[in-house]
Amino acid sequence: MSGLRDWTGGRFHYAWIAIAVTFLVMLITAAIRSAPGVMMVPLEHEFGWSRSAISTALAINLALFGLMGPFAAAAMLRFGLRRTVLAALAMLAASVALSSLMRSNWQLQLLWGLMVGCATGATAMTLGASVVSRWFVRHRGLAMGILTASSATGQLVFLPLMAFLTEQHGWRSTVWLLAIAAACIMPLVVLLLPERPSSVGLRALGEPEDAPLQPALHHNPVRIAFDALGRASKSRDFWLLFASFFVCGASTNGYIGTHFIAMCGDYGLTPVRGASMLAAMGMFDLLGTTLSGWLSDRFPPQTLLFCYYGLRGLALIYLPYAFGLEYFFGLPLFAMFYGLDWVATVPPTVKLTTNSFGSQQAPVVFGWIVAGHQLGAAFAALGAGMLRNSLGSYTLATMISGGLCLLTAVWVLLINRRLRGWRMA
Q: Membrane-spanning residues where (predicted)?
């Protein structure tokens, strides 16, 4: 690692290598988390499981993904970032591979609900916030935007391939692809991701040479996580951010990410076509989220969040009509507008969290905010499945999701612009 550090010394800061490795970890995580959307209909056909039964497992997955966030961030502070990530990747590879053998619904709940949900909580947004807070003082927004865009790239690279493999060779070929990918990324984490800049004799990018080093925390991770929640819960801004991220998760991972391919089937579109639309959204999100990170370094984050939630709400309300329109004005137009801000909300939310709660503890606090994101996702994944079962269509669920986004666009403007929130000692 030190040799690569010396090679980058005269060219660029090693922080960008740390970002690249983290990007790959988050990319594989995004691919695994998007797989249930491809697998839902094949699982229905092979095992006779209902849409709501499968949605229950996915709701457990999404909820645990979020709830693990603060504890994963605390474990990174206590036991080390690399150890935590490697343990999570090993659990991901094992649980996804074992799912190829499942025959009962309880096995789906255990493997894709419990185990995958817990493991992805340590290898997604909370990991990104932890790496950015350790390695960057300057360009934090851009770095977080790049990492957040990994979820879009995961869809762009893997979704069409997963849909093709599932259609041609069955859903088990998809889970083996993902298990192997999770295992293959582990050596890169060992070789190229230092614990922190000081581990390779560096300062964070943009950090003054005389800045004091952050003290290590030696408390139990559970205590670290709940101490952060106890202090954060006294801040109105925390609850506004938590609520906004609840709606963010409900309108992205929980609804479109989980049900869009099945929704396309209701309109006579093949799984490959639905996956291609999601991949197109991922392509636009790669651009939109990276740009959002750049904008977060230059404009008030509340204003950015107002624009993102407002555009997403309008796009969702338009979606039921998009299926009846041809050419560009149908699904391609929806894919463009919705895709541009799929997770563009993350960089300004991370910036608000870091400015409010300090760079060391911000990942733990952000982990609790991500918990709100995934509770919203779980609510939408289960609720949309139940509405589809009872009404025979996703139209009402789509309108509810869009309306919640429009309401959120208003309340994010109430977040204290002067950021007078407390700072953790």
A: 12-32, 52-77, 84-102, 108-129, 141-163, 175-193, 238-262, 274-296, 303-321, 365-387, 393-415
